[in-house]
Amino acid sequence: MNSGAEQQIQWEVEVKGLSKYFGPRPALRGINLGIARGEFLALFGPNGAGKTTLIRILATLLPPTAGTAKVAGKDIRREGEGIRGLIGFVSHLPLLYDNLTARENLSFFGRLYSVLDLEARGDELLEEVGLTHRQHDLVRTYSRGMQQRLALARALLHDPAVLLLDEPYSGLDPQAVERLQEVLAGLARRNKTVLLATHNLEEGFEISHRLAILAQGRIVWEGERDALDRQELRALYRQYAGAG
Hints:
single chain, alpha/beta, Rossmann fold, 4-stranded antiparallel β-sheet, about 35% helix, about 25% strand
């Protein structure tokens, strides 16, 4: 992408020279990355590549060692509190209250974010993630896949500007992956700004607009999804990140 085109893009996530060290060990080394408003970016990488570290820094859960990043126009170092109200975050852990029902979880988190018309918003999201029929059941009775779908509903409650997804497919059976995939595909069709960090090439390729590969703390490749097919992506991944 040329510099003139870059100046015209309205970046919702903008990362420049971002590094993170844990003691002497580098987790991220000079990351440069931009996600345009309404873009769904799939970030692929093997375990230990630095995906979770990057997501946690953008979510203001972890400070960077060097470099800068902005989320929804706000600087992660100086405006962390403002950023937290503008993002939705889903990790491989659902971060829900097991002894509350789905409806109670959404009500609790909705009040934290001062969501207007919370009951109607909860109805909408429970329908979207396919949990209306289980909304009054305790979360501890849910399957792993159902918990992840509810976690996604929780993350979307306040209509965040940016959705950060860290390995949301982890531990899901094929049927649960398929159902979660349907929900995420709906976000892509609605042009929601999403960063999906995953080592699952097939699912990430299917729903994204743009792709990037992270290996050993560096972005080693990025490009448009429509410019290649699955076989070419697998070959690129083997080339830059190993068999995985």
